[in-house]
């Protein structure tokens, strides 16, 4: 299916709705583990993430046209770097952040990927550096992040630690998008996403080897269904997003990323028990979303 420029915002909205639902989905698994007396320690989190992403990646590879032929034509180093950045490192940090802080806070901080892009793209892809106005808007977004971390609301846990981990997670994800541009020279977006999720999932599985003996207790029926849903979110969300990056400039897509924190905060607020956004989330969210929209409008005017 060909996605036109007019359809692009709706495609990004679908990605945002899927990614936003992942926050309460993971929190629901942690809550089920707590009910069963299981601690969501590092090994358990890594095993959960590994199962999710290896399944999601495997499904995408089954749907790709000629993934093995594309794999042979693609250098291993950028593909493994992409897998590590977008899946392994990003989600080690992400799952840890969700275990110590709120899904609502994490939902807002996913927007930091747009700011990371503006800073990293000139360094790596040699795009123009942000102008003074753009730097000012980035500063406004950063102020919004600080405000959100300062007054995150109910159920926030350790917002300072969680906020730092979420920011590092989006930094890794942004690096993954940058590395993906090299992978897409010899591999289609669907196969690249599939291999990135699958190889990253395998890395996570081996990192969670300490929890293998508890596999049966970690995956009761409810957790199995939630994990399968999260795998679906990964396959469709990342598959569609990376397909969009092959059709449209990442700078254009970055302008629509304000939909991601909006969906994530709203879905987390309604679906995660014991969490509600505080004044910092609302005020910080306004600043973050304003800065993202203003940055995109500035580029459009130019």
Describe the structure.
With 302 residues, this protein is mostly helical. It has one domain (11-301). The protein is 79% helix and 1% strand. A two-stranded antiparallel sheet has the order 1-2. Helix 4 packs across helix 9, helix 5 (103-109) packs antiparallel against helix 13 (259-271) and helix 6 (112-124) packs across helix 8 (159-183).
Helix-strand string: HHHHHHHEHHHHHHEH
Structural class: mainly alpha
Record field, number of beta strands: 2
What percent strand? Answer: under 5%
Strand order of the largest sheet: 1-2
Taking all Cα atoms into account, the compactness measure Rg is 18 Å
TL;DR?
By secondary structure, the chain is mainly alpha-helical. It is built from 14 helices and 2 strands.
Layout of strands and helices, then pairs:
Blueprint: H1 8-35, H2 42-63, H3 67-72, H4 76-100, H5 103-109, H6 112-124, H7 132-150, E1 153-154, H8 159-183, H9 189-207, H10 215-218, H11 221-247, H12 250-256, H13 259-271, E2 276-277, H14 279-301
Antiparallel strand pairs: 1-2
List keywords for this structure.
single chain; 302 residues; mainly alpha; two-stranded antiparallel ribbon; 14 helices; 2 strands
């Amino acid at each position: 299916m060909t996605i036109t420029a007019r359809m692009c915002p709706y495609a990004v909205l679908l990605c945002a709705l899927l990614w936003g639902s992942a926050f309460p989905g993971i929190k629901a698994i942690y809550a089920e583990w707590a009910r069963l007396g299981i601690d969501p320690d590092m090994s358990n989190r890594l095993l959960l993430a590994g199962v999710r992403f290896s399944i999601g990646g495997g499904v995408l590879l089954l749907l790709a046209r000629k993934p093995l032929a594309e794999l042979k034509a693609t250098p291993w180093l950028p593909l493994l770097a992409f897998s590590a950045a977008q899946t392994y490192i990003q989600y080690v940090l992400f799952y840890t952040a969700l275990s110590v802080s709120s899904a609502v806070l994490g939902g807002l901080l996913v927007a930091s990927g747009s700011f990371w892009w503006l800073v990293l793209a000139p360094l790596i892809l040699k795009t123009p550096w942000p102008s003074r106005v753009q730097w000012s808007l980035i500063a406004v977004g950063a102020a919004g992040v600080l405000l959100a971390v300062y007054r995150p609301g109910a159920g926030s846990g350790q917002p300072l630690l969680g906020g730092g981990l979420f920011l590092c997670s989006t930094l890794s994800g942004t690096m993954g998008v940058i590395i993906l541009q090299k992978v897409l020279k010899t591999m289609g977006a669907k196969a690249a996403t599939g291999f990135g999720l699958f190889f990253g999932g395998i890395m996570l599985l081996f990192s969670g080897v300490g929890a293998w003996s508890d596999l049966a207790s970690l995956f009761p029926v409810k957790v199995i269904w939630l994990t399968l849903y999260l795998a679906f979110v990964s396959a469709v969300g990342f598959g569609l997003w990376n397909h969009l990056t092959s059709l449209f400039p990442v700078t254009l897509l970055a302008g629509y990323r304000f939909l991601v924190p909006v969906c994530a905060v709203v879905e987390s607020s309604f679906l995660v028990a014991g969490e509600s956004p505080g004044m910092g989330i609302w005020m910080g969210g306004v600043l973050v979303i304003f800065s993202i929209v203003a940055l995109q409008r500035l580029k459009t005017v130019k």
